[in-house]
Amino acid sequence: MSEENFNFWQAHSLRYLEMAFRYDNQGRLAHPDGYGSRTGDCGDTVEMYLSAAGNRIDSILYQVDGCINTNACANTVIRMAEDMNVDEAWAITPEMVVEYLETLPENHHHCAELAVGALYQALADFNKKR
Q: Which among 72, 58, 61 has a CA at the least distance from the CA of 100?
């Protein structure tokens, strides 16, 4: 498909569009139960701030310094991880994020790796603190 005929809105699934343009989980926690940050070779950075009630993930806030694809992946990771047991959240993979989004461009699959990596670091930090 040529660039002049490319229609961004029609080229992506509703799931991708929802996650790409969602910002209600964006923010920082002053004293998170778990914190993780990951920067990719592309220069994008994802930070995740995890709050837990017992061993259950209560909420996750994030900050993204990067592209819309990274934002979509961060929101997808949060959607998957919220209300999960901390130990179960380790099962979330970049492949699951790509599958959920349906239309994440192949040359941006590394964005899913960044988001999941930030989650893993937040989970590790949570485990270290408890």
A: 72
